Amino acid sequence: MGCELSKLAAAKSRNQSAHEGSHPPPQTATDPRLPLTARQKFTVMASWRAVGRALEPTGVYMFIRLFEENAELLNLFTKFRDLKTKEQQSASMELAEHARTVMTTLDEGIKSLDDMDTFLAYLHQAGASHTKIPGFDRQYFWKIEKPFLDAVERTLEDRYSENVENIYKLTIKFIIETLIDGFDKAQSDKAKS
What we know:
Globin; oxygen binding; iron; Globin/Proto
């Protein structure tokens, strides 16, 4: 019996150290505004911690992928529109700084999935800020979806299973829809004033 107890204690302490700093296991109910189950939310928030430790390289890779697929978007970025090659882009301090800003926004958004009011307010504000960019179209938000997924896959490596990929697809879709809601509201408020 003593042996069983020590195994149990060892397993419990292993589990505790694996979950240190994380929230308790997910409850079954989530905010109805969140298009994820409690388990999906827990999975994305737990796996995101690894991305959070590599925000800038993940973000730079995401933007390089964005510009590979949508070269015309480079013109929206006055600070680095002249960086035409992958090498120039990956060496650019300005691009790294912008990547860090965008990834920090995504980081704050994902970390606040437990609090929908904070999540929505934060991402509505981020979406609204894009109304100040000359020539920015709300549909441009969708162009970051695939580069984001590629960058997360590259950062998570073998932890990026099919299940994790599906959860990230739901998550980035929800984030983009929320950014667009904030953008649209700011556009209509501008039009009224």
